[in-house]
Amino acid sequence: MPLAALSRLALLGRFFGSICRTGWCCSLWSGNSSQSSERCSLVWLSSVTRSSTRDGGCQNRLPVPDGTNVGRQCREVNVLVSETKRRPMRDVCIVGGGVSGLAASIYTARAGLDTLIVDGGESILARNASLENYPGFPDGVDARRHLELAREQARNAGVAFELGRVTSVELRDEDDLEAGFVLETEGGDPLSTRRVIAASWSDSEYLVPLDVGRIQRGSKHFVSVDDGGRTAVDGVYAAGRIAGEPHQAIVAAGHGAKVGLAAIHDSDANFYHDWVVPEGYFTGRGRDVPPGCEEIDDDERRERDERARETILEAFAEPLEERPTMHPSVDRD
Ligand SMILES: Cc1cc2nc3c(=O)[nH]c(=O)nc-3n(C[C@H](O)[C@H](O)[C@H](O)COP(=O)(O)OP(=O)(O)OC[C@H]3O[C@@H](n4cnc5c(N)ncnc54)[C@H](O)[C@@H]3O)c2cc1C
């Protein structure tokens, strides 16, 4: 690659990193309608987002800049992105960054699949007032904080994010079913991917060109899937509520994980289980550490525990400002 192109990429990385550190990325993700209405096609380069989360970048939410600034910044990003024409073929593109999409992405990214989430708004869970049936939180948890932490976890796993609604998914080549898919997004450049996971509760219109098997129940359309979330079209999956799962967050998350695992198993990834185990758990029995697993010694275990505690303590130090999103038909004033 010519030197000029390399230095442009490095500049681009620093530019994204600096935006992320301002907290705007998280603010855009918060689902506040005044911000999310700004169409913003931010491509988080995985290396940038990974380093930006541990130093507290995205989790330190700074005051949200006014909409004009956000829009201007996003347009600058769009120009830079289109200048570089950096639209790689992804292994997995997940439509919807709610509960199930985030869970699926954590599994596919940790298995080494290049994973992108395209999200067009906010999870329906943002309407919840107090999430009290999600295991691990004895007295419940603020649902928006839960979503924020899940996004951070996905970023740490190397998941890339784009904001925007997906409007259609089509085969890249009608004659070559292995060629993957092209996703059109509102106002953005098309995206290419080998596999698609639809995790976009309430919207499956973009799947119409593929004829995956949508089922109408009342005013809603669900997607018909097998036990692993596979649809009638190879390489296309559906996860969470859109796949007809019960309307509960833990079920959506669990289903997302299961569908992520199906996508991993259908790919070339060498994978056994996603487990972190104490040193010697496998090797102490003369076994190799299976693909997807990791053995860590006690020092490393303590380090990870300390990091995990810091993250959680920081995240829960203050109450969140955001209130639950109200049902659109309720007048709040
Ligand atoms: C008021 C309320 C309270 C609730 N309380 C609880 C509770 O206490 N406990 C509980 O277990 N469950 C609760 N739920 C249910 C829970 O929120 C859902 O079951 C869960 O969020 C479903 O997860 P999902 O990933 O399928 O969908 P979501 O979490 O809604 O995620 C879907 C994502 O897809 C995005 N999207 C949609 N279309 C597109 C598109 N075309 N392109 C790109 N992105 C798109 C959306 O913006 C969204 O981010 C509650 C729901 C509501 C409405």
Keywords:
two-stranded antiparallel sheet; single chain; FAD/NAD(P)-binding domain; disordered N terminus; alpha/beta; binds flavin-adenine dinucleotide; 333 residues
Q: Describe it for me?
A:
The protein starts with a helix and ends in an 18-residue tail after the last helix. Strand 5 and strand 6 (191-198) form a beta hairpin. It is α/β, with parallel strands linked by helices and 333 residues long. The longest helix is centred in the first third of the chain and has 20 residues, at 3-22. The chain folds into 3 domains: 1-38 and 49-86, no CATH class; 87-271, 3-Layer(bba) Sandwich (FAD/NAD(P)-binding domain); 276-317. Strands 1, 2, 3, 4, 5, 6 and 9 form a 7-stranded mixed beta sheet that branches. Strands 7-8 form a two-stranded antiparallel ribbon. A two-stranded parallel ribbon has the order 10-11. The chain has helices spanning 3-22, 24-29, 33-36, 46-54, 67-84, 99-110, 143-157, 249-266, 298-315, and strands at 89-95, 115-119, 160-163, 166-171, 181-185, 191-198, 214-217, 220-223, 236-238, 276-278, 294-296. Helix content is 36%, strand content 16%. Helix 1 packs parallel to helix 4 and helix 6 runs parallel beside helix 8. It binds flavin-adenine dinucleotide.
